[in-house]
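FAQ: What does the model actually see?

It sees only this:
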Amino acid sequence: MKKCLVTGVSGFIGSKIADRLILEGYNVVGLIHDNKPKEKNEKIQYVFGDIRNKNSLKDAVKDVDIVFHCAAIVKDYGPKKIFDEINYKGTKNLVEICEKEDIEKFVFLSHIHYESDEITNHYTRTKIQAEKYLIKKHKEKGFPVVIIKPGNVYGPGATTWVLRPLKSIQNNKIRLVDDGKGIFLHTYIDNLTDALTLAIKSDNVLGEKINITDGDNSVNWKDYFNFLSDISNTERMNKSISKNKAMFYAKIMVFLNKIFKIEPWVTPMAVRILTNKKTIDIKKAEELLGYKPRVDYKKGKKNVEKWLKKSGYI
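And it is asked to produce this:
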């Protein structure tokens, strides 16, 4: 059976794709750095490495057929240098090592971008830089890359779009922006792992950038946040501030973080996500991957509620 390397295996998505690959019979190597997996899978071979150090990646990539590059700094604020070193230069380091091996496919996990974030957000900016670098490598040298761009990934185990908003709601530290009418591009984790595994089985995806969501653009952030309010027996969210006011606060918070290291409770990227009106078409994923979301929003919510109760969060 083929051998897969998963970088960022300690993270939510990285751990889920690694577990999925094991279930499908692949041999899996998981690259870890500072953060160790919360729950280790005994069938995964864990190796230490730092994508900022090219030489430290040699053992991880040796004899690997397929690479899933999930490692990244996933924040919407912070020093420019660390985003450049990990999200962009780290990707280049991994690619240069992979070029010395006979890998069949390099699956790069990016995300669906929001308007203007290339300028205002280091995370998105460096992801876009990495995408451009990878596509150039494919066009000039035939590097076997496929780029998967999910929306707002949620599900059991998710921090960014489950535990963080839940905690903010429970502590009354969150408000709707523009009445919560922005589109929640919900992407259930099992649907995403379906897409990622399909990407290595499909022959016509090299050099492609493919958006992945649950295919439903009808759910807004008010719907989702009030779902979390309801299952945690907290007051439903009705208070709202305008996008302009939220953006004003966000820019101040990011500035204070730079000077005093105060953790922002809102950022410009968060404001754009919460006011997103951009719908996403998954026809390309359906045509190239044969992708069909198995878990709809109703079932996804039930699974999240069940996990939160079992884990003692609600």
